[in-house]
Design brief:
Layout lengths: L17 H21 L18 H11 L4 H15 L5
Helix pairs in contact: 2-3
Length: 91
């Protein structure tokens, strides 16, 4: 009976080296997948789903205007001051 280990009578041959490489690739893939999903908590492997607007002065001002803390006149006055000091960011 011919088995893979004795196929052709020459022993296992060089193909036997591929089996540990395949298992190593599988192990690295599993470890990478687990680290990317578990390591980031509820965000998943690609970062948070709902990104916050940030803490830039314009973002804070926009949130305060949206929540009703300041009125429209105050909003535009402060936006003009921020534009004079920092300029508009280029996109």
């Amino acid at each position: 009976m011919n088995t893979l280990a004795n196929w052709g009578g020459g022993g296992p041959g060089p193909w036997i080296l591929f089996l540990p490489l395949i298992w190593a690739a599988v192990a690295v893939g599993v470890v990478t997948l687990v680290r990317r999903t578990v390591g980031r908590g509820r965000h998943g492997p690609w970062g948070p789903v709902d990104r916050p607007a940030g803490d830039s002065p314009l973002a804070v001002l926009g949130r305060r205007f949206a929540s009703g803390e300041i009125d429209e006149d105050e909003y535009w006055r402060r936006v003009s001051v921020l534009d004079e000091q920092f300029g508009r960011p280029r996109r």
